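Box 3.1 A note on notation
Throughout this textbook, protein chains are presented in two layers. The first layer is the amino acid sequence; the second is a token string describing backbone geometry. Keep the layers aligned when reading.
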Amino acid sequence: MADIPGRTYRVLTLNNISLRGLERFPRGGFEVSEEIGHPHAILLRSADMHSYEVPDTVLAVARAGAGTNNIPVSLLTNRGIPVFNAPGANANAVKELVLAGLLIAARNLEAAMQFVRGLNPGEPDLDATVERAKKRFTGFELPGKTLGVIGLGAIGVEVANMAQALGMRVLGYDPAITVQRAWQLSASVEQAQGLDDLFGRCDAISVHVPLLDATRGLVSASRLALLKTGAVLLNFARSPIVDEQAVAEALKAGLLRAYVCDFPAASMLDHPGVIAFPHLGASTAEAEENCAVMVADTLRDFLEHGSIRHSVNFPEASLPRLAGTFRLALANSNVPNMVGQISTALADAGLNIADLLNKSRGGVAYTLIDTDAPISSEVLASIATIPGVLSARLV
């Protein structure tokens, strides 16, 4: 069926969101504001929600970006609330920054620029001083060097393909690479047999994995010891993925030529081998617009049709809507007989199921059910009380 007559969805923004994204919400069907009560959805960028009291009316949370460390995902999952993000929308912006960081490290550009800034403009033989000093900043060219890319998601694939196009040999490692990303990856990118294999064969390594318990400290002292002398380490993922003390020791020992990252750390700011940016990965006008548009479209599709795409905690779920049907969307614990209990409740109410989709992801399942007749509020309330149902709504 079409949207429920008179339904207006309220979206609360916790940060400034690109106008191009906000324009994706049609007037009349949506109210979007930073000051709105009883919101159906929350849209944000970097605002910290861990101490935020999420209203009972919230059906979804969406971040106009990739990482969701600022969102209490587990808590929202237990409440049946999907968390959406915008994977890949900022991939080109991060890829370009990775390239910039790699070139800065390869050609010693930061040290060279600092040298020039320290020159005395009144020096009588400035040109000769420059010529004598430039040997200190001799670097290397990229073609023929080997880049290892850890994590072949949207950004990792872009970085790998870029490096390959620049004449670098590229090793990739991602045991969980998706079919979609595999199709996008250049056929010339080689598969590393494991992380130790990758670290032992590369002149530079770029990390592009999410921060999880399994990835915390992934770049460790033992793995850094496998690197070729004078290697470059690039981290544009998350700071804790790298053991910073081990990196500092590798820099001091000359094992690492440079550590390029997007996360300045107090313990490493004074180290001459550290090149740190102030979290600029997605800081382009284009990336902000792309993220806002993607997440707005995803959020609208969920609110209006119950579809789930680009969620970090719920399964992908999309069911074409049949004319003349009425939709029920449910989130529940992924345990046996949930669909059976829900179907029985609908049958007891004399409702016929025209179509059904059930998907699961870890401990949570999501179900879309289309019925031939309207579902009453009493039947909805009855279904919501079934043990294991986390959320239930009419769409």
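The chain has three domains: 1-90+283-314, 91-276, 317-395. Confidence is low (pLDDT under 50) at residues 1-5.
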